[in-house]
Amino acid sequence: MATPSSRGSLPQSTAALALLAVMLPPLLWAGNFVVGRAIRHDITPGALVFIRHLLALLCLLPFCWRHMRRDAGAYWRHRWFLLRTSLTGMVLFNLLIYLGLQSTAATNALLFNSAIPVLIALLALVFFRERTSARQLLGLGVSLCGVLAIVSRGEWQALVQLQFSHGDLLVLTGVASFALYSIWLRDFPAGVHRISLVCMQMLVATVLLLPVFVWSLATQGFAPWSGATALGVAYVAVGSSVVATLFYAAAVRRFGPVQAGLSIHLTPLFGAFMSALFLGERVYRYHWLGMLLILGGLAYATWPRRAAPAPENAG
């Protein structure tokens, strides 16, 4: 992971880091779906979400404690920002996704997750009167077509035949929660160390998840972990919780919630190729078609517009 500046933000002048901030989170989140589905019988969703955030907190705390003490007053002033972003982006989103993955099909989960950019654009309009430009709408539409090409496996009539379950509703609610989180990230307090604030969000999320963890142990117990389970938990704690969260927050700061949210369309694309790499599944033509549409729409919506030439002085 790149070393942050003294304020914990990615250098905006570095194009490579800006691209990494857009590409890395959906890659890590795609792995989160794969791992969450793979270990669903080994650990309960309540235990997984709590341990995930606890481990992420322990990873960050040694590097952030000094800044957290310095910014304690700012945390209190922005306590409602901390509470709502921790609750929506860390607690509800992850808990509802893992609960949904217990019963829903992966196709449905990926389809709902890909609705996040659309929800972000709608919520930005409703809450902040932030209008989406024609350029962003076109890019959003093109990339969404790429998602649908992958989810439907190139057979569009398959979208009509999808069956929805209780797990689907859980995933959809989690998706809406993450869209709210993305919108509220725009209120990131100025002058506060970025990585330490993420650490503080992890702390709030861990406290909120403690009753869920205790209830999970009381009702479902705690099965012994295998080596694969331990590796899966470590991945979602470090990769999906720490690294992806930091880089997504940086992408929102640089591009805004609507454009940064478009990168979430890369999640099913990365998921398809990760399944081919780790599970031996084939990559078909519709995967390549989806990749071209997703990347094309994302590039069109986020590519910097050329400034109009200044008018010549008539005098």
From TrEMBL:
<dbReference type="Pfam" id="PF00892">
    <property type="entry name" value="EamA"/>
</dbReference>
<feature type="transmembrane region" description="Helical">
    <location>
        <begin position="81"/>
        <end position="101"/>
    </location>
</feature>
<protein>
    <submittedName>
        <fullName>DMT family transporter</fullName>
    </submittedName>
</protein>
<feature type="transmembrane region" description="Helical">
    <location>
        <begin position="286"/>
        <end position="303"/>
    </location>
</feature>
<keyword id="KW-1133">Transmembrane helix</keyword>
<feature type="transmembrane region" description="Helical">
    <location>
        <begin position="262"/>
        <end position="280"/>
    </location>
</feature>
<feature type="domain" description="EamA">
    <location>
        <begin position="167"/>
        <end position="300"/>
    </location>
</feature>
<dbReference type="GO" id="GO:0005886">
    <property type="term" value="C:plasma membrane"/>
</dbReference>
<dbReference type="InterPro" id="IPR000620">
    <property type="entry name" value="EamA_dom"/>
</dbReference>
<feature type="transmembrane region" description="Helical">
    <location>
        <begin position="137"/>
        <end position="154"/>
    </location>
</feature>
<keyword id="KW-0812">Transmembrane</keyword>
<feature type="transmembrane region" description="Helical">
    <location>
        <begin position="197"/>
        <end position="218"/>
    </location>
</feature>
<feature type="transmembrane region" description="Helical">
    <location>
        <begin position="46"/>
        <end position="65"/>
    </location>
</feature>
<feature type="transmembrane region" description="Helical">
    <location>
        <begin position="107"/>
        <end position="128"/>
    </location>
</feature>
<dbReference type="InterPro" id="IPR037185">
    <property type="entry name" value="EmrE-like"/>
</dbReference>
<feature type="domain" description="EamA">
    <location>
        <begin position="18"/>
        <end position="151"/>
    </location>
</feature>
<dbReference type="InterPro" id="IPR051258">
    <property type="entry name" value="Diverse_Substrate_Transporter"/>
</dbReference>
<keyword id="KW-1003">Cell membrane</keyword>
<keyword id="KW-0472">Membrane</keyword>
<feature type="transmembrane region" description="Helical">
    <location>
        <begin position="230"/>
        <end position="250"/>
    </location>
</feature>
<feature type="transmembrane region" description="Helical">
    <location>
        <begin position="166"/>
        <end position="185"/>
    </location>
</feature>
